[in-house]
Amino acid sequence: MLMARIATAVPLALMFIGLVLFASPSLLAAVFGLFVLMGAWEWTRLSGLASFVLRSLFLVLIVAGLIAGSVQLQLLAQVQRLNVQSVMGVACLAWAVAMLWIKGYPSSAILWRSRVMRLIMGYLMLVPAWIAVMFLLSVPLGRVVLICMVATVVVADVGAYFSGRLLGRHKLAPNVSPGKTWEGFWGGFLACAGFGVLLWWLRPVEVSHLNLAAILAITLATALASVVGDLMVSMVKRESGHKDSGNLLPGHGGVLDRLDSICGAAPIFALGYMLANW
């Protein structure tokens, strides 16, 4: 299982880095948008939609959200920066609510198990994440900043995996994801703290105004959000009776199984970056 995950993850990581560093902004927007749509299609399955028409209609709504977000980003130099910040704030609030639902599962399912609520959850998970990624690409050294955001999620995941395997005893969310432990969580958290120090030490002059406290706050909040994103999708999969969101990626499941942590992390990272540079 681990080798299958590595065999899939390494080519994806190299492809991602190459795409971010060398592709045009328009191509990046299209590729990331395609992944969002693939994740949205998988989400309709987890939401209980069987009709092709209804599932396609949800994708149309997602596309409309991406277009609206793109318009706001095109006007970012003007007052619309506040609009983007508001979208990130709403997304962060939605993830805070999701954290409460995860803690209260399965009792909390009565609040969100309806198809409509699950579709709203999916919309608030996917569209703001794409807007956050596009925003990060628009800032100075944006391509490097985006890679740092994704690297933070990867460091949290890898740190949690190995510390959980070695030390894991106490379940983090037994009703949602029995394999995750508090030891794994803190291992990932500490790994991200170390990564934050490394980012501060290596930061270029363009972001030299960001002090260690700001960088640590952003990286640690991003690590926490990535865990919440992972657990939220796991919770919905458990409620809907699916082990994976799909089977596109060997050893990883579906696209959404890889996007879940990024979807939770991206708005938090983007909002933190905005506030640190306000």
What does this structure look like?
By secondary structure, the protein is mostly helical. It is built from 10 helices and 2 strands, in the order αααααααββααα. The chain has a two-stranded antiparallel ribbon. A hairpin with a 3-residue loop joins strand 1 and strand 2. Helix 4 packs across helix 6 and helix 6 packs across helix 7.
List the helices and strands in order.
HHHHHHHEEHHH
Strand order of the largest sheet: 1-2
Oligomer: single chain
Number of domains: 1
* E-strand count: 2
The major pleated sheet works out as:
2 strands, antiparallel
Into which percent range does the helicity of residues fall?
over 70%
Radius of gyration: 18 Å
Shape: globular
Q: pLDDT below 50 for ≥5 consecutive residues: which ranges?
A: none
Percent in strands: under 5%
Distance from first to last alpha carbon: 44 Å
InterPro entries: PC_trans
GO cellular component, one term: plasma membrane
Protein name: Phosphatidate cytidylyltransferase
Enzyme class: transferase
